Amino acid sequence: MNRILGFSTLGFVLLVAFYSNANYFIFAHTFSGDESASFLTTAEMMKIESQLAQKDLASYATTAKEHAQHTTELIKANDTKEINERNPRLATELNNTLSDFVKTFDSGKPSESTVKDKASNLDDIMAEVVSARIDKQQLDNVTVKALVVNNLVGETLEHYNSSLGMSEASHDKNNTSSSNSNETKIRDQADYESAQGAVTRAIDLYNEIKPSGSANSTELVNALSSLKDEIDGKSPFDQADKIVDDKITPLLNDMFKLKLAVEENHGGEGEHASPGNDTHK
Q1: Is the pTM of this model over 0.85?
Q2: 49 φ, ψ to 5°?
Q3: Phi, psi of 169 (to 5 degrees)
Q4: CA–CA distance, 164 with 182 (Å, rounded to integer)
């Protein structure tokens, strides 16, 4: 009798576990290609910011701290909610690891080895989060990767815009005066470096997915390189903006069928080449 009861109890426990996991998979959010690309962009920018924090630590401690603070701004409340849907442990660990990384810079000038270790921890947890949050099929999807390239270009413009001290509301008015000069003044070094990091990663990622033997492919390589040159040369914002609107966005649309919304006028930050209808599933 005790033996039968033991098997019955075990069966009940396994049954409860099965239905708990079944409910987890039923209610976990299924992410579209656009949503996956958006989060992958967040992961890319997280790595860029943590690397810049390490690079600047020895000579520019204040700028390094700004890069560390940028990492906390990347994960939004909705991101945490969605990660928690897939894996509550990872959501908690990501929050704790981010806080730990940023707090490292609060105590004066931390050692380079300490920052390196904290950044490595952050990279590791983000890799786990990406694997848990995004299906492998989407991770390997060329259209999703092309959307990430587009998003990184948007991050480039946004950070470059901010580095020049230009707000979205004042962009059009300021753009006229800055266009008449080949000189710009960088007002926020951290944002400037983030812009450089984003465009460099956009180029590297595009090189991983570019079609071979295509004239458009070569033209897009050249356009991305031109954007990097404009950023590195601290050109007026509208010159970088024009390359994106006239070259990069149309080429991405044509080659990868992204259905990106193209600007009619050169606007301010955050308005560039957002995905259109959500078709990348």
Answers
A1: no
A2: -65, -40
A3: -65, -30
A4: 13
Q: Where are the alpha helices (DSSP H) in the chain?
A: 2-27, 33-56, 61-74, 77-86, 88-103, 112-133, 136-139, 142-163, 171-179, 189-209, 215-232, 237-243, 249-256
Q: What is the predicted pLDDT for the residue at 170?
A: 46
pLDDT value of position 25: 37
Q: At 260, is the secondary structure helix, strand, or coil?
A: strand
Q: What is the CA radius of gyration of the chain?
A: 22
The two three-digit tokens of residue 165, written as one number:
């001290």
Q: Which long-range contacts (CB under 8 A, 24 or more apart) does 27-30 make?
A: 27/85, 28/85, 28/86, 29/82, 29/85, 29/86
Q: Which amino acid, residue 139?
A: L
Token couple for 189:
């070094």
Q: How many residues does the chain have?
A: 281
pLDDT along the chain (281 residues), means of 10: 46 41 43 84 98 95 95 93 92 96 88 95 96 92 97 98 76 43 83 98 97 92 98 97 97 93 57 51 39
pLDDT score of 174: 44
